[in-house]
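In response to the reviewer comment on reproducibility (Comment 2.3), we provide here a single inverse folding case reported in full, input and output, so that an independent group could reproduce the run without further information from us. The structure tokens appear first.
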């Protein structure tokens, strides 16, 4: 499910294309292409809590990850909410996962919030992303113990 305001269809398509490009760069193990999806002053907060700053650093660090821990992996990202805050800024909430390149995508075990900006060249880029590991069992227990904590949309 993707929510966005009417009149932003082209921008929504551009944001989807940007996140798709980041996933393609990830699957190719191309840190430079991955970093190019980010602004030069971007912030990337990993689900481990590591903070990377700037597209160049994000690309460099991810290249090291693609060459080691994340070798032969793919990034799966589904936008579940997309909202525009003026003509130059959007916020996307996604569910996603990292999995072996040749494996079928498994359970989406991460949630990420992206702040996206349209830069002077007219292209959308990631200005910030914060990733959180999902804990479905704990979440279900919380909802069962306190039903009022269950969000209207899931």
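Designed residues, in position order:
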């Amino acid at each position: 499910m993707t929510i966005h305001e009417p009149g932003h269809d082209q921008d929504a398509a551009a944001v989807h294309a940007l996140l798709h490009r980041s996933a393609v760069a990830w699957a190719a193990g191309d840190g430079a292409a991955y970093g190019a999806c980010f602004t030069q002053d971007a912030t990337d907060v990993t689900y481990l809590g590591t903070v990377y700053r700037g597209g160049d650093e994000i690309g460099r660090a991810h290249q090291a990850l693609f060459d080691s821990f994340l070798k032969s992996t793919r990034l799966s990202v589904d936008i579940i909410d997309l909202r525009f805050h003026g003509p130059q800024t959007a916020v996307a909430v996604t569910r996603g996962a990292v999995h072996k390149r040749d494996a079928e995508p498994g359970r989406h075990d991460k949630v990420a919030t992206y702040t996206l900006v349209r830069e002077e060249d007219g292209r959308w880029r990631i200005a910030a992303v914060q990733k959180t590991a999902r804990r479905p069992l704990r979440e279900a227990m919380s909802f069962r113990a306190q039903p009022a904590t269950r969000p209207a949309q899931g």
